[in-house]
Design brief:
alpha/beta; five-stranded mixed sheet; Alpha-D-Glucose-1,6-Bisphosphate, Chain A, domain 3; 37% helix; 443 residues; six-stranded mixed sheet; globular
Length: 443
């Protein structure tokens, strides 16, 4: 289903470019407000949260203006993790929630993630309906003056979110005696992350908690895991937690300084959940999930299904198959028992709960051997070149060469102007040869 504005995870791009500017955000607000106020569920309320990008201060008022012009009442929350917004959208019985964020991207990008009243990201079908409203003449969707929405700022978002997180665990659960490093990427989790861990009694060493509007994800956070590795070693911590800009991703670090990606976290949790008879159905991964993870689940007799890249597609497959665990190598992990979307802090709590009896993180995460994986991100002017005959032929040649010894995946990014070329194989020479065939054509 081809979409005009929405990608694999909302709308994202360069600030003050084609889609990410005040004019378009007014239209996004007006269109989404118009769509959701026609749904006869709940109150006419929209909740807005954001990460810490400087551009949020110019884009949020435009979005609010569009929503209120459509007749929606708006609550603004300020910086709040994405799943915090999803949880509060559901608990406050709002029509919709909108997160202003570009997730793990640099400060000069921004975007939107939209959630329905159930706290779930919108389906392709609903996104298409909103897109059709965006392209209509503005005056068609404007409310009468007496039916304009009102705006109110709520300061309790992070505290309410922390309360919801803690309710998922026994009252006696605490982190006393643990030394924990948390890297909040100078992003949306910079308040909630440290506050949550401290409230449970941990000795917390916080980094990436001084956002200035321009330093989100800059040499920190889940896309720069060496930062957490060095700080864990420095403070001799039991574990490290690294979030991305909107705190829906998590990468971890064990006490020995080993970086733990999403696949390893999922493997450890799935193993424990199966043992505790908490795992329902199996696990949903993505096309990017490591081949070693797939082999491990097969050996453990845990059903494993791949979805398209994007935690929204993971959640859709989880619902379709009635599974309660899924996620991505990048650290988007959905704990279906507790949440509707990826949540770095929730996953961190589940891991810490698993370690509460003194088990070392290095032992907990020691589950499977990863198949060597190489990922190349190639910047392009036009992502549609992926459909050219030359590139398709190069992919076929590479796949034929590596067949039986690994796999190749070539896809266009849903959030950036890049083509991602990934290969996995124990035969490094063969892998490099195959990747070179494809990369040469793209470049």
């Amino acid at each position: 289903m081809t979409k005009k504005y929405f990608g694999t995870d909302g709308i994202r791009g360069l600030v003050n470019s084609k889609n990410i500017n005040g004019d378009m955000f007014f239209k996004f607000g007006l269109a989404s407000g118009t769509y959701f106020k026609t749904q006869k569920k709940r109150k006419q309320i929209a909740i807005i949260a954001k990460d810490t990008r400087l551009s949020g201060y110019s884009l949020e008022p435009a979005l609010v203006s569009g929503l209120t012009s459509a007749g929606m009442h708006v609550y603004t929350m300020g910086p709040l993790p994405t799943n915090g917004l999803a949880m509060l959208t559901k608990s406050m019985k709002a029509n919709m929630g909108i997160m202003i964020t570009a997730s793990h991207n640099p400060y000069y990008d921004n975007g939107l993630k939209l959630f329905g009243p159930d706290g779930l990201k919108l389906s392709d079908k609903i996104e298409k309906k909103i897109e059709s409203l965006i392209d209509k003449k503005i005056k068609i969707n404007l409310s009468e003056p007496k039916k304009l929405g009102r705006v109110k700022r709520l300061e309790s978002g992070n505290k309410d979110y922390i309360k919801i997180l803690k309710k998922n665990f026994p009252k006696e659960f605490n982190l006393r005696g643990l030394r924990i490093v948390i890297d909040c990427a100078n992003g949306a989790g910079y308040k909630a992350g440290p506050e949550l861990l401290k409230s449970l009694g941990a000795k917390v060493f916080s980094i990436g908690i001084k956002p200035n509007g321009l330093n989100i994800n800059q040499n920190c956070g889940s896309t720069f895991p060496n930062k957490i590795k060095s700080v864990v070693k420095k403070y001799k911590a039991h574990i490290g937690i690294s979030l991305d800009g909107d705190a829906d991703r998590i990468i971890m670090c064990d006490e020995e300084g080993n970086i733990i990606d999403g696949d390893q976290i999922i493997a450890a949790l799935a193993t424990r959940w199966k043992r505790k008879k908490m795992l329902r159905g199996g696990v949903i991964g993505t096309l990017m999930s490591n081949y070693g993870l797939e082999k491990f689940f097969k050996s453990q007799k845990i059903k494993f299904i791949r979805a398209n890249v994007g935690d929204r597609y993971v959640k859709e497959k989880m619902q379709k198959n009635n599974f309660n665990l899924g996620g991505e190598q990048s650290g988007h992990i959905i704990l279906g028992k507790f949440a509707t979307t990826g949540d770095g802090l929730l996953v961190a709590l589940e891991v810490l709960f698993s370690l509460r009896k003194g088990k070392k993180a290095s032992n907990f995460f020691d589950t499977f051997k990863k198949t060597p994986q190489v990922l190349e991100n190639v910047e392009v002017k036009d992502k549609s070149i992926i459909n050219s005959t030359d590139i398709k032929n190069s992919i076929k040649i590479a796949e034929k060469l590596i067949k039986g010894q690994g796999r190749i995946l070539v896809r266009s990014s849903g959030t950036e102007s890049k083509i991602r070329v990934m290969g996995e194989s124990e035969n490094s020479k063969l892998l490099q040869k195959c990747l070179k065939i494809i990369l040469k054509k793209i470049k």
